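Hi team,

Below is the intake form for D-serine deaminase-like pyridoxal phosphate-dependent protein from Bacillus oleivorans. Please confirm the fields before the structure is written into the shared record.

FORM ID: S-0412
PROTEIN: D-serine deaminase-like pyridoxal phosphate-dependent protein
ORGANISM: Bacillus oleivorans
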Amino acid sequence: MTQTGKSIYELDTPTLLLDQGKLEANIRDMANFAKENGLMLRPHIKTHKSSKIAKMQLEAGAVGITTAKIGEAEVMARAGIKDILIAYPIAAEKKVNRLIELLGQEVHLKVAVDNLEQLGLLDQFMSKTPHQLEVWIKVNSGLNRCGVEPGSEAVQLAKNIALKKKLKLGGIFTHAGHSYAAPSLAEIEKIGLLEGKAVAESAEACEREGIPIAVRSVGSTPTYKIAGKVKGINEVRPGNAVFFDAIQAGLGVTEIDRCALTVLAAVAGKYPNRKTIVLDTGSKVLCLDQGAHGNKSVKGFGHVVGHSEITIERLSEEHGIASIEGETSLCLNDVVQIIPNHACPVVNLFDEYVIHQEGVVTDVWDIEARGKVT
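The structure came back. Fields below:
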């Protein structure tokens, strides 16, 4: 068991480290933005997958949480968190039965919907229960993944929800994940404005038809501070902003020193004739992500803190093969911290965070929802 009071550099490697001071600062920043702009905050927990961190976000002012999958929602509900949006379209009976179990635990549950067939199935399965399920319409704001088109398609879906006895419409939301492929901050700004308008204008169109829309929600760490300021938006759902990572820094969304999550790694081999070192962190630790949705906004497979001369050029399962530009002070068994390119999938590979303050271990927190992908 990891002992408090140790230097992080005494730990075995690879280890997932979380800087508590940076984490708390990032949580405050999200909460302050929401408060200052009169918005509700519903952070996405798929980044951290920890009930401890989710509760910190709730204590800072969040109204509830967002999850990607039912498995994450089940973990959070067991931890006592009762206001949960599952931002994923669900239609299979075996999955709806799990939703019904959550409703039976008095979880205030909301589920994404984006097509008529799905509505019919949800209503059919819910008709066998005493519960009514709250659904939120997902609109497509440019990612072209899930979601109806803004405007008339959203209105048509809303009208059909109104006809279902076991479903009630609670909100309209979107996710501008394509902002991760933006080539510049100016393009991120443009995407964020369109994201906010897609939701706000769809909500306005529904209300012109006499269908009230209580929640108008936007997400995506690169855009939430832009879309959240669009008139008519009343909720934001940032996820990655709890930690940040090298991709966010590469996009210009944050500074690299705000990244709270790092991987502790050791030099497993040094090969001067090839100008390379090998780190004990391969794809099973750092993942192969170099920029979501098409933009390679980072160099290599992780940022080696304090060693700009090192670039992790390629990963095999257990090895990080890094090139040396010029000279390096790193020797065999030396230990470094690596900021992952994409924090979310890296977290999903570990069982726990080792918490530290200025490099001294203070605690260990379980990542209870890791691997919960159903």
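SUMMARY LINE: The chain has a mean pLDDT of 96.

Thanks, M.
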